[in-house]
Design a protein that fits this description.
- The chain has 540 residues and is of the alpha/beta class.
- It has two domains: 213 residues, Leucine Aminopeptidase, subunit E, domain 1 (3-Layer(aba) Sandwich), CATH 3.40.220; 304 residues, Zn peptidases (Aminopeptidase).
- It has 15 helices and 19 strands.
- Helix 5 packs antiparallel against helix 15 and helix 13 packs across helix 15.
- The chain is elongated and about 80 Å long.
- The two termini are 27 Å apart.
Amino acid sequence: MASTTAPTITLAQKAPAALADITEDALIIPIFEEDGCGKAPAPLWRSATTNALDTLLSGLVGEECAYVDHLVWRLGDAHVIRLPENAPVRYAVLTGMGSGKGGNNTGVTPTQIRRSFATGFKAAQQFGIKTLASIIDPLDILLDGGTPVTLKQLACWQAEAAQLSTYQFTKHKTDTSKLPTHLNTIILYPPLQATDEQHKAVTQGVIQGQAEANSTCLARDWVFDSANHITPTYLKEQAETLSKHDITVNHLTLDEIKAKGMGAFYSVAKGSDEPAYLVHMQYKPKQGSAHKKVSLVGKGVTFDSGGLSLKPSKSMELMKLDMAGAAAVLATMHGLAELRNHGVEVPLQVDGFIALCENMPNGHASKPGDIVTTLDGKTVEINNTDAEGRLILIDTLTYAQQQVDPDEMIDLATLTGAAITALGHACAAVISPQKDFADEVINAGYAAGEQFWQLPLLADYNESLKSDVADLINAGSRGQAGTASAGLFLKQFVDKKRRWAHLDIAGPAYTTKAEPEAPKGATGFGVRTLLHYLLSHTKP
């Protein structure tokens, strides 16, 4: 488990025959806006659990919903009530689901369901409840667009919500007494009197949700932690642990990076005394052949001072986060390993490449005006040493293509401040020459609860990348389409026939506002999108 304060989250081995079988302290109850809130003579609860509890307690749930008149059970509303002695649990955690009318593009979204349960789990944590049960009911709701919500999806989203909402990074806290009293245990139950088919669907959903959430929290841990702890060497060692899960792991050292002709990568890494690595992790399905090869590439600058183009001190404070792209790729590979341990194989060859180094201004650091030769032979004039991420990425993208000839490549990087200016902290930028591929990534993000917006690759910006003395310059015109021009720079190093998407996650990788499913700070953004995308290739 990633966080030292996370509760134990498990799936019950058998479905409860009745509410009396629940032994935890509390039960989470979803309430939709239009369920009547107890005001109607007979509220139409969408959850069988809610209906059963309300019936058992002679309408108490409905009465409580009506009594708490400041809540209309919008998304984000939550209320904990003490139940009478005849109740199967001591507390009910009522959580607002918002509207569940559904159909005609007015249905619920995956984020709505996930966030609602996250609100409930967090409310239970803050209330001090120790053990909490959630019965995963089939809900009479439709997704936005009109398709029914499946039991597997609900199980996945609840498992994600449980882990993500209760996450706390406490590694370096010596006094945790003032932190919210964390839940000890969350038990996820199949529906009351579940059939074998329902139990199987819930099991599959929980396995997927836990793998995605655990991996996201792993990435959060790495990004939250400090640069003196999360070094290139540390992340290389984290990658090497994957070998025990039949994932092949190899790496290049700085000397080998130089010897292979990766002049762009080397120009950044040589400015630090910290060893640098290019790590390659390869996942292959155990049975059958891979349908295609997908390469994931992550920028892993574990601290970015800006190099000799030194950042202002205020802008440098959080530059430990500049490895969030590599953290996402590495955590995704850990997610594939966890899924494999539960018998879930992705029918793809997945290669993860993470470029790990620091960007520091020592006596070996690159100087503005230096010209380097990249692995694919192009020359680049470095006019800004703080535009270092694209330099390590271009050699890593080339290396990935040379090593495995992938059908698809997705790279993730906290690449430009311009992405934050354009899209803020709620959304990441997607840049791809193939709209259909960009749409597939965006749709995977939608299902995962991570938002993306496609930005254009305009040939008009090529002029800003031209150098008078080399093939390219590494930073285009200041203040003009910084994210798009950075993507255009990367595109020069990707085979035109290859499906490729660049994800600039600078905004959502580290946020200034807490959400029910994420704390303020490191979010682990991108991990769930990648896993959703890879899992979309498995059979239902």
